[in-house]
Amino acid sequence: MSIGDIKSDEKGLIPAIVQDYKTGEVLMQAYMNKESLEKTLETGRSWFYSRSRKELWEKGATSGCIQTVKELFYDCDGDSLLLKVEQAGAACHTGNRSCFYRSLLKSEEGVAAADIGKVIADLYSKVEDRRKNPAEGSYTCYLFNKGIDKICKKIGEESTEVVIAAKNESKEEAVYEISDLIYHLTVLMNYMDITYEDVGIELKKRFK
Fold it and tell me: Which residue, 71, 157, 167, 189, could crosslink 194 as a Cys pair with Cβ 3.0–4.6 Å?
């Protein structure tokens, strides 16, 4: 399909959903026209059409919260778009990460399975922030200061705790210890400049 095959409404507009390419989190919804779509494909950054100002605008041009487009899809009818982006800073003008930060209906059962990618991404970002901006009394900073030997020692200890919890056949205990292990693995990954994207690429090789 070419740009000319994308179906717009009577005003020449196409709804566009923007999603974090790592976590799948929906960040915002806006409108594109043919020209903004062309500029998005040309520059690799998100461009939209403002219905109120009646002009093109580049996301983050003034705020610095640009969106680097990693993938761009169209739906089965060819009349709406999905952008998967790397978001710098907040997507919403309110300062929230996503424009969809208010809820009419929300699960009371904790973190949904679909949100686990966001949880992991947020954990990695928090660990990375502690590495770059040390805070007094932070356990994460303590691990970074102690270095690789201390981090690896903790991973060994937490791995053992996971095994013990499993042998005890305690789901609650196992969930707690697995969470500890994932946290310490995340610290190690950040220390070694390994991202979850790197791990994801490697894991996908195992699917074959």
Answer: 189
Domains of the chain: 3-87 (3.10.20.810), 113-202 (1.10.287.1080)
Residues 34-46: tens digit of each pLDDT:
999 999 999 999 9
Beta bridge partners of 73: 82
User: Hey, what are 207's tokens?
Assistant: 């699917």
> How far is the C-alpha of 163 from the C-alpha of 178, rounded, in Å?
9
Q: Single out the residue of 25, 128, 6 nearest to residue 75, CA to CA.
A: 6
Please write the tens of the pLDDT for every residue from 121-134.
889 989 999 999 99
Give the predicted TM-score (pTM) of the model: 0.63
What sections of the chain are H helices per DSSP? 34-43, 116-132, 139-146, 148-167, 171-191, 196-205
